[in-house]
Amino acid sequence: MMSAKENLSKETNRSDAPPPGEAEQATEAGTPAGRPETEQATKKTTARAEVPFTPQQIEELKVRAAKADEHWDRLLRATADLENFKKRAARERQEATRFANVSLLEKLIPALDNFDMALAAANNDASGRPFDPNLHEALSQQETADVPEGQVLRQLRKGYKLRDRLIRPASVVVAKKPTA
Q: What's CA 58's distance to the chain center, in Å?
């Protein structure tokens, strides 16, 4: 049975030697068939190949191969973990950008709700009620048959009261009968 080094040295010797026929062509062309450097390397490889491995060296090589496999596995896992981390970080960064204003909107929504309620109250504050000079300021009159005469047709500016005291009267348009 041949050792691994002997197999390697024989393959090296075969690959260094020119294929049959080429040596003859090289000689005919005037170049030497073998170079001195190649012959020396072949002699060194052959000399090393003659020394067989000891069982201890073989065992040490097996241990090193197992460690190399373990390190290769660790490298592959670490690389995969890094790639997964990069993808997760990019995804989280995208989501953070897309939803960055959520907290601001959550704080503004109650204020918007209050504005909506205030607008609804302002629209219903004077419209459709009878004109009261103590609460309303008539800016103009408009002829209409839809609303009885003397009622507020439209509110232009909201009025304010604090308890029983009028702070600002509501500015309104008062309905009047159409002239025929």
A: 50
